[in-house]
Amino acid sequence: MDSYATLINTGRINHDDGDKGWRRCPNGHRMIVVGFEDSSAGQRRVVVKDLVGGRGLKDNGNDEPQRTDHKLSWQDGGQHHVRTVSKQAIPGAERELGTTGNASLHNYPPSGGSGLPVLALWSYWPEHQSQDDLTFPRGAEIWEVENINGDWFIGSYAGKMGVFPEQYVRTLEDART
């Protein structure tokens, strides 16, 4: 397994796709950084750096096969950002094809996405589940949470984005005190 420094230095990926940028593999997939920590049961894997932009990063790609770019959009600090980037992490590809909002050419979405982390106080498995519902067990840590209307939140758990009732969760800081 090659490190990002090796991939950049050998020209297999662009600098913007390295560990200080999008963290993409040579095939263009966004990557996480995993480490290990000691616990009473031995070592366990932990996510050191989550996906750049989190699971809420919207790929507003295009369906035209001849196009080599796609638009990525995200919310951060209440502002909407859009960047158009190359679909592949290959050297020489036109990397930053345009930005809107406050996104500069060297501005990336936050690692793990934006929004609050919350802890599930109860399991949420609605009887009549819709495609937009986010289901989770008690004790689940839900990330990238944003308040939709005071009663409903949207967030990410187990790689899925969806909506859930506010009363089922507490912010991680409040839940741990």
Can you give keywords for this protein?
177 residues, mainly beta, four-stranded antiparallel sheet, 2 helices, 11 strands, 6% helix, globular
Which series of helices and strands comes N to C?
HEEEEEEEEEEEH
Summing up helix and strand content along with how strands pair, one would put the structural category as: mainly beta
- Put simply, the count of helices is 2
Query: What's the alpha carbon Rg, rounded to whole Å?
Result: 18 Å
State mean pLDDT (0 to 100 scale). 76
Low-confidence stretches: 92-106
Tell me about the largest β-sheet.
5 strands, antiparallel
Shape call: globular
The helix content is under 10%
Query: Got a strand count?
Result: 11
Order of strands, widest sheet: 10-9-8-7-11
The span between the termini is 41 Å
Strand content: 35-45%
